[in-house]
């Protein structure tokens, strides 16, 4: 009998059968050979992964005292997160984000903010529905929208200053899509913003909510960098504090990955007031819950309100100092950047170092900095920048000392390249 050909994977996951992008591969390589001032001074300095390494000492010390688990932690519990964990999260959100009461029943814990977004898209949207996504964006959003929920990102290109979108950009895109028969069901916002480092004002959020409501769209606001506001003159305005009630159509996402430097613990939070979505969400975290051990440790951590307050103060001060070190290095090199007030990023213009104003030149520069300077940046192309030559630098991913080494290496690499070019031209 002839052998039937059996496909290796189902059609549900066929779209995942693609290699990692070169910029992800570069980060994997950098992880294997990381810079250390004493033990590996020639290692890679990786500014391409959104992590905060500046305050690990404070957390490691605290976590040592949060892991004395009782037997109950070893058993099954509510998959949304056990009650004590969700109660602590509710108090925490009330204090730092919402400044009003938060209903414990609207809190759903899962394995990170990426997972939280995926769950929301699965619950609220149909396969194939479009999600408006302002560019430049955090590249992982594409995966969060597409991978499991099978929704479609619809990129909105910005026309405002410093790459910021305006309401008319959203409107134009929505009209265009609806004219061509595409279904658009949601808008995904990120504030504080990855990669631009700005936050929406109260007025902007109010206008966006009235616009999404007029157009029957779900609004999902990712505030994962909400407590990483380092500018002395800025304050977070959370969507939870703008609206007295989120209603059925506005949803909040946060996680411990960034503000508490714990991307490896995989603990994210959804807050929704949509009762139907809540019913569905009761079941889904079974597939992607936070382990009992992690919930226990994080409950202990959050319940120490003095620690949390001091940690946020110290962490934002460290972010501010490291951001300032990068800015002065960039100023010395004559590189311009979009001023940032929160989050981990500097969005900077490396056009002066490119042979031409093209995506190809951007890729070539990225590769040269990676191979010759061993400095990893995120090329703007993967964030869907509207202009070649912009790069994202995650400044919190390494110490200020490493930052100085990195920019020195970059300078040497650029100078060397320019000299080589001059010799070749002669
Ligand atoms: C804006 C934004 N949302 C979500 C995530 C994913 O976070 P988590 O590690 O909690 O899944 C990231 C990670 O870089 C991010 O920058």
From TrEMBL:
GO terms for molecular function: pyridoxal phosphate binding; transaminase activity. It holds the Pfam family Aminotran_1_2. One of its GO terms (biological process) is amino acid metabolic process. Keywords: Pyridoxal phosphate. Residues 47-403 form the Aminotransferase class I/classII large domain. InterPro entries: Aminotransferase_I/II_large, Ethylene_sulfur-biosynth, PyrdxlP-dep_Trfase, PyrdxlP-dep_Trfase_major, PyrdxlP-dep_Trfase_small. The keyword ATP-binding does not apply. Coiled coil: none annotated. PANTHER family: AMINOTRANSFERASE CLASS I_CLASSII DOMAIN-CONTAINING PROTEIN, BIFUNCTIONAL ASPARTATE AMINOTRANSFERASE AND GLUTAMATE/ASPARTATE-PREPHENATE AMINOTRANSFERASE-RELATED. This is Aminotransferase class I/classII large domain-containing protein. It comes from Galdieria yellowstonensis.
């Amino acid at each position: 009998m002839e052998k039937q050909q059996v496909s290796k994977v189902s059609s549900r996951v066929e779209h995942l059968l693609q290699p990692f992008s070169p910029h992800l591969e570069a980060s994997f390589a950098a992880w294997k050979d990381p810079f250390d001032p004493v033990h590996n001074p020639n290692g890679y300095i990786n500014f391409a992964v959104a992590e905060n390494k500046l305050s690990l000492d404070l957390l490691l010390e605290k976590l040592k005292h949060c892991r004395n688990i009782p037997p109950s932690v070893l058993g099954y519990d509510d998959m949304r997160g056990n009650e004590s964990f969700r109660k602590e999260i509710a108090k925490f959100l009330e204090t730092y984000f919402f400044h009003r009461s938060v209903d414990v029943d609207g809190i759903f814990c899962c394995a990170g903010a990426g997972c939280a977004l995926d769950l929301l898209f699965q619950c609220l949207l149909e396969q194939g529905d479009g999600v408006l996504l302002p560019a430049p964006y955090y590249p992982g959003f594409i995966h969060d929208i597409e991978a499991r929920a099978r929704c479609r990102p619809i990129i909105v290109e910005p026309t405002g200053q410093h790459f910021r979108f305006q309401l008319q950009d959203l409107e134009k895109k929505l009209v265009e899509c609806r004219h061509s028969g595409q279904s658009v069901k949601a808008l995904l916002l990120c504030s504080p913003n990855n990669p631009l480092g700005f936050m929406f004002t109260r007025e902007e959020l109010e206008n966006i909510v009235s616009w999404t409501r007029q157009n029957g769209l779900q609004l999902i606001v990712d505030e994962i960098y909400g407590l990483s506001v380092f500018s002395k003159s800025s304050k977070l305005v959370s969507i939870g504090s703008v609206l007295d009630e989120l209603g059925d159509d506005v949803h909040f996402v946060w996680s411990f990955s960034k503000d508490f430097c714990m991307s490896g613990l995989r603990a994210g939070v959804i807050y929704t007031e949509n009762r139907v979505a809540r019913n569905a969400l009761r079941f889904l975290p079974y597939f992607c819950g936070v382990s009992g051990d992690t919930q226990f440790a994080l409950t202990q951590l959050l319940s120490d309100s003095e620690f949390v307050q001091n940690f946020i103060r110290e962490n934002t001060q460290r972010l501010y100092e490291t951001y300032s070190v990068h800015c002065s290095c960039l100023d010395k090199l004559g590189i311009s950047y979009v001023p940032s007030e929160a989050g981990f990023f500097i969005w900077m213009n490396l056009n002066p170092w490119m042979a031409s104003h093209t995506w190809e030149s951007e890729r070539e520069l990225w590769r040269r900095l990676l191979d010759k300077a061993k400095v990893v940046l995120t090329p703007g192309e993967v964030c869907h920048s509207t202009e070649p030559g912009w790069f994202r630098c995650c400044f919190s991913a390494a110490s200020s000392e490493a930052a100085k080494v990195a920019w020195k290496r970059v300078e040497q690499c650029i100078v060397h390249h320019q000299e080589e070019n001059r010799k070749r031209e002669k």
